[in-house]
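User: I'll paste a sequence; please echo it back and then give the predicted structure.

Assistant: Echoing your sequence first, then the prediction.
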Amino acid sequence: MAKRKSKKRKQELILKLVIVVVLILISYFGYEFTQGANFFDVINNAVASLSTSNRQQVERKIVNGVMEVHTIDVGQADSILVMQEDQVMLVDCGTRAKGSTVVNYLKQLGIDKIDVLVGTHFHDDHIGGMAEVIRNFEIGTLYTPNNLEEEITTYWYLDFLDVVDEKNVNWVFPEVGTSFSIGDANVQIIAPNAKKYKNMNNYSIVLMVTYGESDILLMGDAENLSEEEIMNNGLFIDADVIKLGHHGSDTSSSEKFLKEVNPQYAIISAGKGNTYHHPTKTVMERLKKLGIVVYRTDESGTIIMTTNGNNISFNVEAGDYLSGDKLN
């Protein structure tokens, strides 16, 4: 009888533990569910958050004489850190659940000021974590698209507006063709090229970052329409490296656009096992056909690209051309 009671007690404890874990997940990630996030993507992000620090440690501080571009592993989201000399630009901050991941990553690098903070467009997987970032760092200039007339009522957006107001952040809207400096690197705004879009992704701020002879094109979630506008606006878009738009979705990275950019390398920020199957088979086959070497966070975790203005290197091995649904 005692053994049976002990077994029953153990089962009750296990059940209670499961309930506690579920309640914690709901409490911490519940807002994502309320914004229509897929259950499995939320759980995958949670697992990635726990495992990222074990997969890869931040090894470098700000280094003079080179430019570093860190594609931070934030699961099915984007966050890209550019460092040159003593200046810093952060492009996107992952989801609200990943804000602390980005904050901790920057603090490990000894960063206390973000000279330029860019929110490419108002989707949770790009700006959700931005309020947390703004709370923790001095911000020089903030760039986002001008979506103030859009009716956005999500919690993370309202939180973002509050903290921008609280800290009196210098908030600027992008103008195509204008540029600014990050150390000795030049950053030019390439998109958005229209004032109004039906699809929020096409509001994405697209940046060409140039250091010496090295160019990297950061696409946000810009889709085919924005790519066509970029090709028509007459600005220089030939680049050594492209951070693919929309996590490798087939709504972006048309063959025509990739041929125009003519990159040697492509970086993809996507969560392993994401239910969108990013990067898609179509895009991966296109990259392979064009001979573009691929680096992807769903395989390698955080990717650090380093250039001295001539040579480009990466901290991880190149990835494969499998689509997201084939990567285990």
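The domain at 35-326 is CATH 3.60.15.10 (Metallo-beta-lactamase; Chain A). The radius of gyration is 20 Å.
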